[in-house]
Each structure stands twice: as C-alpha cells, then as structure tokens.
Write a structure and sequence with these properties.
mainly alpha; 15 helices; 69% helix
C-alpha cells in the first residue's frame, strides 16, 4: 500500500497514467503500479479474517448480539472515516469532500454485511463468496444512467465503478467472505505452521490456475483485452471494478503472501517487525500516512509527481522512518486508553 501511495504522490508517470487503462514505459514502473493492485484484495481478505477471529474470541465473553453490534460499529466507523478524514486527506485537507465511497468505506460495509453470515459454517460462507464472484460479471452488464444520482449511487456502491466509487462492495465483499473462510483454516482447522503453509500453497496454486484459464478464455470473467500470455496487459486486467480474473489472481496472491509470512515468522521473526508495528494499528497507519503525503507533497507541492521509480522507493523509506515510531506510540496509547473513539481507530 505504501509503495503504491508513494508512487501516486511522487511518480511523474501519474501525469499521463490512466488508472482505467494503464500503460508503462518500463518494468520498474509496472512493478510500482502492480504492487498497488494487491492492496484492496489484501485489505478485504484481512478484514474478513479479523471479523471472523474477533467474533470467535468475543462470543466467549459476551452475547451474540453485543458482539455483532460491536463489529457493526467498527464497520460504520470506517464508513464515516472515509467520508470525513480519508477523502479530504488525499488533497492535504484543502477541501472537504464527503461524497465519495472509497476503499475504507467498502471495507466497513463489507464488515457489516459479513456480520450477518459470520456464524455460518465455512463451507456455506465459501459457497456464498464464490457465488458472488461468479455472478458479478453478469451484473456489470446492467445499464444505468450515470446522470441519475440514485442509479449512480446504487450501482457504483455495489456493482460498478465510477466517480462516486471505484470500489463496488459486492466483489470486494466476496473477498472478505473468502478471507473469513481462510481464517477458519489458518486460525482453527490447521493446527501446525507446516499444515497452514501447505494448504495455503495448494489453495493459491488452484486459484492461480483457475484465473489463468479464465484469462486465456478472453471472455467471461475478463474486462480488458490482453496481447499475449505473460505481458503487462495479461497481468493487469481491470481493477475498477475488478474482473473475476483479477479477484481470483489476487486472492491467490494474498494467500501466497500469508504462507510466506508464516515461513518468515518461523525462520526469522525479527524480519516481520516492520510489518507488525503498523499491523497493530492499520487504520492509524493508513489515515496518518495519507494525511502526511497529502499535506506535505500535494498541498505544499514538495516534489509532487516529479520523480520516477527511485524517488518513489525513497519516499517509502522516508515514510516508514516517520510512521513506525508514530504507530508504536499510538499502539501504546490505544492499549492504555478506554476512550471509545481511540479504540475504534
């Protein structure tokens, strides 16, 4: 995520890059952009995993409804955070921009929807998630009037992408469901790290293979055409809204990434520190790093989109130097505080 955002603010390619139809002058520029494609699937799958895990832990100490209500509040808080802080932070708070439903709001609404099926067995949740992914490409064929506010809001909130929202809830909610299914395996069914890694690798390989079959079919489950297997255009089908190929491909990528983290944790746990510190306060990291980039880079116009690959990567290093101590500090504050607002962040 930080790699993608650093590139967005510092990389001159964004002067001509169309996020709906990207072209790249080099593999370095492609890699910067491609890294960002992992964010939304990772966010939604981890959110789904944490909803499942939080429910399992809290239900031992509280009533079913009180646990669900807590998770619903978390989801609503994310929607409000998107429309108040996040939207405006992109431009350094130059203007107040509440009328956009972005990725954080999408996570929030997906969490709320997941609450109503979280008690189902993993097999039923898996069936629901896969069914949504299969049906979504057909729903994209629905025609609607983008000038009609009600039609625009309804379609772009749940199915399509546009000015109101790039992250329609339905396909991303499906990934949140699949994240809750994977959490059942990672945190409950598979008892050893070896089992977790082997199962994750098998599931990832299956999803990658299915994604390739769908992509090579050049029809159902695809949105953007591609030139040849292994090309930039093959790997980058449309993200706004996501095609079935994209969702399967990055579902597999996230699962593969989790197995990699498990392996790193066994071999050298200290290497995970750079991830574990912001991982304890992910919303704080997201909100604050965007605000810093928005204010200092965009609003104050400090090197805004003047660099290339190297400058974007230097931006990542600088932001980590700034954000890691802040995240460590806020985690301490959150652990000690009983304040409702702080606990929600």
């Amino acid at each position: 995520m930080l790699v993608g955002h650093s590139s967005y603010y510092l990389n001159s390619i964004w002067h001509q890059l169309d996020p709906f139809d990207p072209v790249f002058p080099s593999w370095g520029q492609f890699a910067l952009r491609y890294a960002g494609y992992l964010c939304a699937p990772g966010f939604l799958m981890m959110a789904g995993a944490m909803v499942w895990w939080s429910y399992q832990r809290r239900i031992k100490k509280a009533s079913d409804w009180s646990v669900r209500w807590y998770l619903i509040q978390r989801g609503l808080f994310l929607v409000v955070a998107q429309m108040t802080w996040v939207n405006s932070s992109w431009g350094g708070f130059r203007t107040f921009n509440p009328w956009h439903f972005g990725i954080i709001a999408c996570i929030g609404l997906s969490m709320i929807l997941l609450v109503f099926i979280i008690k189902l067995r993993w097999q039923f949740r898996l069936a629901i998630g896969l069914a949504i992914l299969v049906i979504h490409p057909f729903l994209l064929n629905f025609q609607y009037d983008t000038e009609n506010i009600l039609e625009q809001v309804l379609m772009q909130t749940f199915i399509d992408s546009g000015d109101f929202n790039k992250y329609p809830v339905l396909p991303w909610f499906a990934l949140a469901i699949l994240g809750s299914v994977m959490a059942t395996g990672w945190l409950s069914i598979w008892k050893t790290d070896k089992k977790r890694m082997l199962m994750s690798l098998g599931i990832a390989a299956t999803a990658f293979l299915l994604a390739i079959v769908i992509r090579m079919g050049r029809g159902y489950g695809n949105i953007s055409p591609f030139s040849e297997f292994g090309s930039w255009s093959f790997l980058l089908d449309q993200k706004y809204p996501p095609s079935l190929f994209m969702n399967l491909w990055f579902f597999a990528s996230v699962v593969l990434g989790v197995s990699l983290f498990i392996a790193i944790g066994k071999l050298s746990p200290k290497l995970l520190m750079v991830f574990s510190i912001p991982g304890k306060v992910p919303l704080f990291f997201y909100a604050v790093h965007l605000a810093i980039l928005g204010i200092f880079v965009k609003r104050l116009n400090i090197f805004y989109r003047e660099g290339e690959v190297l400058e974007s990567l230097l931006g990542v290093v600088i932001m980590l130097v700034v954000m890691l101590p802040l995240c460590k500090w806020f985690f301490g504050v959150k652990r000690r505080s009983k304040n409702y607002f702080i606990q929600m962040i």
